[in-house]
Prior knowledge:
The complex is a heterodimer of chains A (201) and B (586). Chain A is an all-alpha fold. Chain A folds into two domains: 27-138, Cytochrome Bc1 Complex, Chain D, domain 2, CATH 1.10.760; 140-180, no CATH class. Chain A is 42% helix and 0% strand. The model of chain A is unreliable at 1-26, 165-178 and 197-201 (pLDDT under 50). Chain B has 586 residues and is mostly beta strands. Chain B has one domain: Methanol Dehydrogenase, Chain A, CATH 2.140.10.10. Helix content of chain B is 6%, strand content 33%. Chain B has a four-stranded antiparallel sheet, with no helix packed on it. In chain B, strands 2-3-4-5 form a four-stranded antiparallel sheet, with no helix packed on it. The longest helix of chain B has 16 residues, at 2-17. At the A-B interface, helix 1 and helix 3 of A face helix 4, strand 9, strand 12, strand 13 and strand 26 of B.
Amino acid sequence: MAKRFHYAFAAIFAATVAGSGVALADSSDEGLRVFKAANCVGCHKWTGAGGGGYGGAAANLRKTKLTLEQIELTIRCGRISKGMPHFDADAYTDGRCYGMKAAQLGPGQIPPEADHPLRPADIDAVAKYVVANIKGQGEATLDQCHSFFGAGSRVCDMYAKRDEGGVQHADAEQQEPAEAHQHMKVDAATDSNAPHQDAEK
Amino acid sequence: MSKSTCVAAVVALILGSQPTVFAAEGVTAEQLLNADSDPGNWLTHHKDYSAQRFSPLNQINKDNVKNLHVAWTLQLGGIEGGGIWTHGGLEGTPIVENGMMFVTDGWGSVYKIDTRGGQAKVLWRMDPKTDHDWAGAVACCGVDNRGVALSGNLVLSHTLDGRLIATNKDTGQIAWQRQVADPDKSEVITGAPLVVKNMVITGVAGAEYGIRGWIAATDLTSQKEVWRTYTIPAKGEPGSETWKDSNNAAATGGGSTWVTGSYDPRTNTLFWGVGNPGPDWDSEYRPGDNLYTDSTLALDVDSGKIKWHFQHTPNDAFDYDSVAENVLADAPVHGQPRHLDLEADRNGFAYALDRDNGQFVWGLPFVKKVTWTKGLDPETGKPVEYDPKTPVQKYNASVTPSKENPVTMICPGNMGGKNWPPTAYNPVLKEWYIPVIESCNRITVKPETPGKPVGKREFFTGGGPDQPVRITGSVTAIDVTTGKEVGKHETPFPMLGGLLTTPDLVFYGQPDGKIAALDAKTLQELWSFNTGGGVNAPPMTFTSDGKQYVAILVGQGGAWDKWFIESTPELKGMPPGSSLYVFSLN
């Protein structure tokens, strides 16, 4: 069942990329695919910055001090007593993770099971992706946003405004084939409860 | 009532044979005003403007409901993920007009389905091409869309990425659209639109990300916004004095409006619920009562001006939204005829107000366990510990999340009580049914830093919940003439889908896939069926070719499986889905 999900998500992702018409070229392609498909984004966000919120804080991977090996271990095994899931489906069957088996761990200790367990090659790829594209990066940039999402989404607009002082946005307006609705702006009425509204009318 | 019902039936018959004539007419303002006496149709989100979700249809009744079975099902789309979400879900109420059904999926596609002849035929699908990444990253609680509204020849719908879309009912082509909410400010839309007169009304979500909430009305002819009422008053407006800090906490004060409201034509008043203040669990960040968060608002529908408000949880530290629907019911209370506004709050209390002036009539806990307060003041309806002179309310201080008490169990838990899933009111029995989440959960406070700029498109919650204990549910019945609980039907899972009542039945769905009918008087279960998919949407009923059907969308979405699943371990791994179930007798 879990495997089926994995393929389903990979298929959705493939469709998204194909639709956006962006060719992803660098060697992190596979890692990026896994980062999306395994829903690391769901907790760590696309930037890896994680952050507080509803479900408790996921670590900021941009500021992680961990080595590639430690990152890979964390992804395979999750974190004992923390919200980081284990992506190796058999992590706690034979002591391969921290020398522990499920029976030795209490209910609050055993890391959550990942929704989408990963194959060793996927874990390897996503760990490398974290080291190459996230670890040690400062604030997220427009370029990083574009290489994550491709074109076609307004998700990067906020970085455009910040990085380019609006210049980038003007360019974006000329880019085709963006859908017409992608440039719509809110044209709000004035505040109905403003004290002098009647006088203004 | 019976007369206009008869007229409607005749009109429906005539029009049914001449669909082109009908298409030109479409749904009129008059029809929407009289939706309560149009039993075969379900023309607006809560069935009619009173939000009672009562249908007088009684072909399916307590004597024969045991024979209810699947008439047909339909697979829908919108199951894909986006942003922080792995999948979409279904929370919508189907709308039916003369045998034509309109439903939405989580990403806002609208489907027109011909239900005539006892089978389903999809006539068109309007895919709004919602920007998944833009919107899904700032949707606190799932990829959801609660349905459409009808006006004239238009089908009105919202998208998670903040648009209001008008679709031609015959062709499925977009006639026009406008951006109403701005996901760049973490504003998204999940609620169904409400058409009143020549306006369509929109509410917004985003109080977990530091929005300043609003309700907005768009003119259907000019397609321009005619009014926007902010739920957090600007400096100088009445209510702004309830934000007492010096860091402009009001600017990010929350107050979402993501559940469709109700309307009383008698007084030209729109009733709308307002959500929690932000940051959710750091009440010290925003000393004061924080109007109009956690309030019921009564608005002049033409101008959006606030007529009165009633705040349920001043200076909320629990995430106890009052975003729920306000049910308008006329009934005697202790022998006195009253125009009531009924609201079942996230904070675990059910309230009846006089809807003409906002005065408290009665209130009672509808959950089994309330720990945050000892109860409501019988005069004012405020929690008894509430002290208007205290800027940061402590309520039951040993329970209330605060810097001194940063890890605390609260009952009800932060989902409620009762969340968005709608209640149903039976005007025959004068009983009001509440879909209850019987819950406690644990809050950990992580104070926000006053004066520090709030992260753009970042959670701004001042902490978060986790789920150390099991959460269950119930259908709880209240006699509105006395304000007393008269029944509780307990369920193994929380109520995440809402209710429908007919003269002698109550219908509900559960997140394990079960759909059931209860005897409206005794709350005894009379029928059930398992759809095999999580039910996260309210049941509705309609007639097609004169025959009664019950319809419900099936497909778990929402916040539950991401943030609350630990409290319902059996639901772990429940696969997402997206389908429509329709039931009938024989």
